[in-house]
């Protein structure tokens, strides 16, 4: 199947692929909607025991939402996108089946938000992880500001979100951000190994285990909803638009009057 999102089921494994390698697998609102449909299909399919989420090509898992598409967002469009993302997160967390992130390159911004929503992460050695929110006038409030501290600790989470630096797969694994790192040539075999292991387990036990482990972080759902609504209002400000515009134009943002870029902004 072609298109922005590919969906395939084979031998009990549902594979969802973000298929925009030319855009480093940044997704649009249509892509978010299609991912939601795919996760629902996997949840409803009795033959599916595990879901793998990945990106096409070797350069990127996902680099987030397509800023080129979002730069001219209105509040209404932004709220529509966030509503779909909340539905997508709900399906990923409550579909009852383990979800593995197969990370094959850049995992940045909303790409890492997708990664955090997966149960397990297997990354290639060349994968890079990070966030760009404050750099581009945004905040990763879609389950990252809520979940990342639970994986890497609060101090590390603040470093990752505030400083907007990138981290190697090995560094991410050391922090507890990902589960396993393998050479790129072994990525598919490693993911397949874990899929086969999960398929050999009781599906009902896995469903109950996922529900039980999620129970603690489920209490954060209100914070996620509130955070997404707040970010909608922020995206409609001049400050946020300047960040997104500067990113698209490949220049430093002028967030403050004293910024060197302010004169030419």
TrEMBL record:
<dbReference type="GO" id="GO:0005829">
    <property type="term" value="C:cytosol"/>
</dbReference>
<comment type="similarity">
    <text>Belongs to the enoyl-CoA hydratase/isomerase family.</text>
</comment>
<dbReference type="InterPro" id="IPR029045">
    <property type="entry name" value="ClpP/crotonase-like_dom_sf"/>
</dbReference>
<dbReference type="Pfam" id="PF00378">
    <property type="entry name" value="ECH_1"/>
</dbReference>
<dbReference type="InterPro" id="IPR014748">
    <property type="entry name" value="Enoyl-CoA_hydra_C"/>
</dbReference>
<dbReference type="GO" id="GO:0009234">
    <property type="term" value="P:menaquinone biosynthetic process"/>
</dbReference>
<dbReference type="GO" id="GO:0008935">
    <property type="term" value="F:1,4-dihydroxy-2-naphthoyl-CoA synthase activity"/>
</dbReference>
<dbReference type="InterPro" id="IPR001753">
    <property type="entry name" value="Enoyl-CoA_hydra/iso"/>
</dbReference>
<protein>
    <submittedName>
        <fullName>1,4-dihydroxy-6-naphthoate synthase</fullName>
    </submittedName>
</protein>
<dbReference type="InterPro" id="IPR018376">
    <property type="entry name" value="Enoyl-CoA_hyd/isom_CS"/>
</dbReference>
